[in-house]
Amino acid sequence: IDNGVVTDFVSLGAVPVARITGGxxxxxxxxxxxxxxxxxxxxGNITRSxxxxxxxxxADAEGQGEIPSYTGAAADPTTGFLYLGARYLHFSRFxxxxxxxxxxxxxxxxxxxxxxxxxxxxxxxxxxxxxxxGRKEDCDAVAKGRASAKTAIRRLPxxxxxxxxxxxxxxxxxxxxxxxxxxxxxNSGVTDNKAVxxxxxxxxxxxxxxxxxxxxxxxxxxxxxxxxxxxxxxHVVDQRINGMPRTRNDEMSGERAAYAAQAVYYQGLGKxxxxxxxxxxxxxxxxxxxxxxxxxxxxxxxxxxxxxPGC
Length: 311
Known about the structure:
The chain is an alpha+beta fold. The chain has helices spanning 136-155, 160-171, 222-242, 248-269, 288-306; strands at 7-12, 15-21, 24-30, 36-40, 46-48, 74-75, 82-83, 88-90, 93-94, 182-187, 197-202, 209-214. Helix 4 crosses helix 5.
């Protein structure tokens, strides 16, 4: 709100596509990194064509102080600093240290204030925490899934469920990154559309977590991919508190928590979840019968592979 005039933004996944101010729409045409190239009015006339140097420094007056700015981020109108979710960026350096743990095997990660591994032409750092590596289409799919999870959180009322999803979203990392404590590893070559989740494992020594996802079945469905990210992110939270599951009871407990978090996510979206863990038509919130059904199937699969006690 500026002087009583309300501005709303419209995005497709993580991509900003329109800004509505006082009822008037401006359409945004972004580049491959979500940086706005042109803005059009309702008649298709170009109203703005900002230009940015590497690391987001405006190359002309049209690139200063507007939202969205470089890579779709919000620019502070007074300082020009870019807000990337976790930190502010000033040209090529963040103003605070990277909150993710240091990876000593990554030379570029040694600079805790660097942006996108000091390679802004190839990588982006949309949350101020990581550089998205891997195939661009897969990175885009994960970003859309994260955006769907954020949408669910915004729509949920305040309470334990919303706070849990906020915690889960904080621990999720991008595909193929080696500089954070959570790495999302994507299998793009699997064609079995029934296989969507690849499992989560947290190293008991380092605390680093790996989330595996088979993306073929969900790449074009941000809502389903967001649900999988929430489910596996809940496993990360659980494993860091309780360690890796050692018995059937351990696994069942973790799966119940993951399906319950997923149910809250679908409640925020107002969409039906798998195993009827949430259904808009029901109106009763989380369906714990469905949660148990999903948890039992997942636990049976885990037991078949692990042969752990109780299986």
